[in-house]
């Protein structure tokens, strides 16, 4: 079903949320695909949900896109970065999504 994706709000202005990132995983034959969002918490760290990354913890399969207003139509300000490490909460449980942080 198509329709508006914002209910009771306003469209974001490009660049208004610079700490929002797209976590993308590489799929053979399909390239990189968006999996989850995250927040830039310092120059070298992204905070996201553990359930987004727990099935594939190898950094080489991931990239982060920072500054994209629309992940399906990247613009010149979007920055793509590789992932060096994935650190998941040691007590994460996928059954109830407890400690769902990475």
Automatic annotation (TrEMBL):
InterPro entries xrefs: Peptidase_S1_PA, Peptidase_S1_PA_chymotrypsin, Trypsin_dom, TRYPSIN_HIS
Ranges for domain Peptidase S1? 6-102
UniProt keyword Cytoplasm present: no
UniProt keyword annotation of Hydrolase present: yes
Q: Name one GO molecular function term.
A: serine-type endopeptidase activity
Please provide the Gene Ontology terms (biological process) for this protein. proteolysis
Keywords assigned by UniProt, alphabetized: Disulfide bond, Hydrolase, Protease, Serine protease
Name under which the protein is recorded: Peptidase S1 domain-containing protein
Lineage at the top is: Eukaryota, Metazoa, Chordata, Craniata, Vertebrata
